[in-house]
Amino acid sequence: MAWIGLMKHKDEAFEKFKSFKALVENESDHKIKCLRSDRGGEFTSDEFFDFCEEHGIRREFSTARTPQQNGVVERMNITVQQMARDMLDESGTPATFWGEAAFAAVVILNKTNVWVNSTQTPHELWYGETPSVKNFKIFGSKCYIKNNDKHLGKFEPRADEGVFLGYSPHNKAYICYNKRLGRIVDNIDVVVDEKGNIHRQVNYENIEEDEDYPPNQTDDEEEPQEAPEE
After folding, report:
1. Is the CB of residue 121 less than 8 Å from the CB of residue 108?
2. What is the domain extent for residue 32?
3. Assuming Cys at both sites, which of 28, 39, 77, 144 could form a disulfide with 159, CB separation 3.0 to 4.6 Å?
4. Among residues 193, 159, 185, 187, which one has the least CA distance to residue 172?
5. What is the count of structural domains for the chain?
6. Would 106 be classed as within a structural domain?
7. Which residues are CB-contacts of 37 (< 8 A; sequence separation ≥ 6)?
8. Angle ∠(23,25,28) on CA atoms, nearest 5
9. Would you state the pLDDT for residue 65?
10. Is 146 domain-assigned?
């Protein structure tokens, strides 16, 4: 199971860990016994050490310049970053929404990714129930968000155009960027136009016209072979 906490500054890591500890211990009825991290300053502050000592949490640190010693989280970080980058790039969504893309990537991984030697997703292993993916939509798609303003005129539009950005962690709703309001909102009454999502395509004809690009070779074409020397 993967969790993500978005921060503006690294010094927020301690408060994020305290919130994470409360969440996972409450959901699992188990205590965190060990915390492994690198030796970044956000993990080695006096208050961080004092908190872990107070709650009986053993600290382990990876050796400098050996991220493989903390391989699980390093691999997950790379996976989430790559997924978020690809979703932003494929949909043409501005990098401003990298946080929403990363959060959506974690939701998808937890509900669809099956680990080696297991037939269950992380969500199933943690919550004991099969996750539903009916609400999954294409990130960055155009969407229409119901306008819940009570003072709408008779002929004013009942929906605002927006961009689909993922899934709310606090309620059963979608996260969208509302273009009229100019801000991110969460709403359950959203229609996502996935068919209108035009994927970025590579123009292979332009590539092949490049003089430095090797021409395609079919199975029927054989490379010329030099005559054997006698």
Report:
1. no
2. 10-127
3. 144
4. 187
5. 1
6. yes
7. 43, 59, 60, 61, 62, 70
8. 105
9. 85
10. no
Does any domain span residue 119?
yes
- How many helices (H) does the chain have, and how many strands (E)? 6, 7
| Cβ contact 199:134 at 8 Å | no
Q: Look-up: residue for tokens 């391989």?
A: 71
Does 156 fall in a domain?
no
Residue whose token pair is 């490049």: 210
Could you write out the DSSP letters of every residue in the chain? -------SSGGGHHHHHHHHHHHHHHHHS----EEEE---GGGS-HHHHHHHHHTTPEEEEPPTT-GGGGHHHHHHHHHHHHHHHHHHHHHT--GGGHHHHHHHHHHHHHHHPPPTT-SS-HHHHHHSSPPP-TT---TT-EEEEE---TT--TTS-SEEEEEEEEE-SSSS-EEEEETTTTEEEEES-EEEEGGG-------HHHHHTSTTSPPP--TT-----PPPP-
Q: Token pair of 49, please?
A: 């050490």
Q: What is the dihedral of CA 93, 198, 189, 133, to 10 degrees?
A: -90
Confidence category of residue 206, pLDDT binned at 50, 70, 90: very low
Which amino acid appears at position 63 of this protein? T
Residue 104 sits in a domain whose CATH number is 3.30.420.10
For residue 115 the two structure tokens come to 């680990």
Residue 160 predicted with pLDDT over 70: yes
pLDDT value for 200:
52
- Evaluated on CA atoms 16, 20, 21, 22, the torsion sign reads positive
